[in-house]
């Protein structure tokens, strides 16, 4: 039923002259049709800009009323497969470009950051600053710890923060990214460190979700609250 309503709404938006006159005084049916068409157009803008809208509406109309298709099932499947292949190839090129740019930004940042007072570099290329010294126990890789943290991109964007959630987290030291596993073992309970983590010690060439792109160098402020029994 929902699909039928969407199709009807889209078909109603097809007549350009009619759609151009839609306003808050138009009938409920007209407003519904226009709204569905507009929302679908906005939501699928990237795809729709690659196709012939007149052909799209023709196919939509024929399909909605059960009219015989102008193309065979095989021809339609081929067209869709070709578009998918082209789209994936384009996305791969864009992804690789982002990865290359992030790698260069990270390399430049870490090279300059290493020269700053108070920044210490390890053999793995992890960099850190001691913001506050601790006096308690040091964890091992097998330890479970309680921490507060905030993670940022090089442009300052905060992508995760237990501090903002006002809720510390607990985990085993060996079960997080390599930069954290190494850095936490340098800390004592009560310490606050700032980690500058190259991509190879973070999420590498893949990144993590939409928030962390490929080859991203990350900055974390970490407070080691307690080494748990």
In short:
The chain is an alpha+beta fold and 229 residues long. Helices cover 44% and strands 18% of the residues.
Detailed description of the structure:
By secondary structure, the chain is an alpha+beta fold. It contains 8 helices and 7 strands; from the N terminus they run ααααααββββαβαββ. Strands 1, 2, 3, 4, 5, 6 and 7 form a 7-stranded antiparallel β-sheet that branches. A hairpin with a 5-residue loop joins β1 and β2. α1 packs across α3 and α1 crosses α5. The radius of gyration is 27 Å and the shape is elongated.
Largest beta-sheet characterization: 7 strands, antiparallel
Low-confidence stretches: 1-19
Shape: elongated
SSE order in H/E notation? HHHHHHEEEEHEHEE
Which features does this protein show?
elongated, 229 residues, 2 domains, 8 helices, Chitinase A, domain 3, seven-stranded antiparallel beta sheet, disordered N terminus, 7 strands, alpha+beta
List the helices and strands and how they pair.
Blueprint: H1 2-12, H2 16-20, H3 28-43, H4 45-48, H5 53-64, H6 73-113, E1 120-121, E2 127-132, E3 144-152, E4 158-161, H7 162-165, E5 169-172, H8 178-184, E6 192-197, E7 218-228
Antiparallel strand pairs: 1-2, 2-6, 3-4, 3-5, 3-7, 6-7
């Amino acid at each position: 039923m929902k699909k039928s309503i969407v199709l009807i709404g889209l078909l109603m938006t097809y007549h350009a002259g009619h759609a151009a006159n839609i306003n808050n005084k138009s009938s409920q049916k007209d407003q519904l049709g226009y709204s569905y068409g507009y929302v679908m157009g906005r939501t699928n803008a990237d795809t729709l800009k690659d196709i012939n809208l007149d052909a799209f509406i023709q196919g939509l109309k024929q399909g909605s009323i059960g009219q015989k298709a102008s193309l065979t099932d095989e021809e339609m499947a081929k067209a869709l497969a070709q578009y998918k292949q082209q789209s994936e190839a384009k996305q791969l090129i864009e992804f690789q470009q982002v990865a290359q740019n992030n790698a260069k930004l990270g390399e430049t940042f870490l090279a300059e950051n290493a020269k700053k007072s108070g920044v210490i570099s390890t053999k793995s290329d992890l960099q850190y600053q001691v913001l506050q010294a601790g006096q308690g126990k040091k964890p091992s890789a097998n330890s479970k710890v309680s921490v507060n943290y905030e993670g940022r991109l090089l442009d300052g964007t905060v992508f995760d923060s237990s501090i903002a959630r006002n809720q510390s987290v607990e985990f085993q030291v060996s079960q997080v990214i390599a930069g954290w596993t190494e850095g936490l073992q340098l800390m004592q309970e009560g310490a606050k460190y700032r980690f500058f983590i190259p991509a190879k010690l973070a999420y590498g060439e893949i990144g993590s979700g939409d928030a962390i792109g490929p080859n991203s160098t990350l900055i974390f402020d970490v407070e080691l609250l307690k080494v748990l029994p």
